[in-house]
C-alpha cells in the first residue's frame, strides 16, 4: 500500500451553487519550471486593449488565445492561434485528470504582482449553459478569489505551481472570480484556462 502516493485525482471543494475541484499537481511529461519557461518564451503574448464602461484600458496582464474558434469578451474579439504540441500535451493531462474535453485555451501571463484579473464570470453563451473550465497554473502562486453574486460570500484559493482547478456546474452563474494585485513583489505566473466552445 502506498501511504504517501501523490494524488492524481481531483478533490471536490464544497461550495454553494456550483462545482469546484482541485488537484495540487497535474501529471505532466516535464517539470513545472520547464513548462513555465517554455510558455513564457514560446507564446505570442499580446497586450490587449479592452473597453470597460466605455473607456479603453490596456489589460494588466498579457494574453494569448489558442483553439478552433474566435472568442469574444469585454468587447474584444480574439482570433485563435492553433494548439502547439506543448499546449496539446497540457490539454491531454487536463482531459485525463478531469474526464472533460476542451477545444480552446486562454493563456494569461501575470508578469509580477501588479498584473491581475478583475472579478468576472466566464458565462459567454458559446461556453454552453454550465461551462466547464479547467484552470492550470505555473510559477508564482497567486490567490484566486471567488465571490458569490447574491450572498457576497468569499472563498480564497491558493493556485500553486502545477495545480489544476476545475470550475463546473452552476458556478459561473452564481459566482465571480478574479486575481487581485499584490503589494508584495511577486514572480511570473502563467495560467491556462481550457474551455469548450460549442
Ligand atoms: O489566472 C487565473 O487563475 C484566472 C484566469 C481566469 O479567470 C480566466 O482566464 O478567465
Ligand atoms: Fe475566468
UniProtKB/TrEMBL annotation:
Instruction: State the Pfam families in the record.
Output: 2OG-FeII_Oxy_2
Any one Gene Ontology molecular-function term assigned to this protein's record: dioxygenase activity
Q: Which residues form the Fe2OG dioxygenase domain?
A: 101-198
Which InterPro entries does the UniProt entry name for this protein? AlkB-like, AlkB-like_sf, ALKBH3, Oxoglu/Fe-dep_dioxygenase_dom
The keyword Aminoacyl-tRNA synthetase is assigned to this record: no
* Record keywords: Dioxygenase, Oxidoreductase
Question: Which superkingdom is the protein from?
Answer: Bacteria
Q: Which SUPFAM superfamilies match?
A: Clavaminate synthase-like
Q: What is this protein called?
A: Alpha-ketoglutarate-dependent dioxygenase AlkB
Provide the species name.
Answer: Massilia agilis
- What is the taxonomic lineage of the source species? Bacteria, Pseudomonadati, Pseudomonadota, Betaproteobacteria, Burkholderiales
Amino acid at each position: 500500500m502506498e501511504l504517501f502516493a501523490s494524488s492524481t485525482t481531483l478533490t471536490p471543494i464544497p461550495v454553494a451553487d456550483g462545482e469546484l475541484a482541485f488537484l495540487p499537481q497535474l501529471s505532466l511529461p516535464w517539470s513545472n519550471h520547464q513548462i513555465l519557461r517554455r510558455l513564457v518564451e514560446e507564446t505570442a503574448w499580446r497586450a490587449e486593449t479592452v473597453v470597460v464602461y466605455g473607456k479603453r484600458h490596456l489589460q494588466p496582464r498579457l494574453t494569448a488565445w489558442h483553439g478552433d474558434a474566435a472568442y469574444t469578451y469585454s468587447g474584444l474579439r480574439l482570433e485563435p492561434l492553433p494548439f502547439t504540441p506543448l499546449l496539446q500535451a497540457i490539454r491531454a493531462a487536463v482531459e485525463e485528470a478531469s474526464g472533460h474535453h476542451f477545444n480552446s485555451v486562454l493563456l494569461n501571463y501575470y508578469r509580477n504582482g501588479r498584473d491581475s484579473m478583475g472579478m468576472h464570470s466566464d458565462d459567454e453563451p458559446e461556453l454552453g449553459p454550465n461551462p466547464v473550465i479547467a484552470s492550470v497554473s505555473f510559477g508564482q502562486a497567486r490567490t484566486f478569489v471567488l465571490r458569490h453574486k447574491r450572498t457576497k460570500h468569499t472563498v480564497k484559493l491558493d493556485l500553486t505551481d502545477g495545480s489544476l482547478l476545475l470550475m463546473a456546474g452552476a458556478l459561473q452563474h452564481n459566482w465571480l472570480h478574479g486575481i487581485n494585485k499584490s503589494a508584495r513583489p511577486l514572480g511570473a505566473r502563467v495560467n491556462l484556462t481550457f474551455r469548450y466552445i460549442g
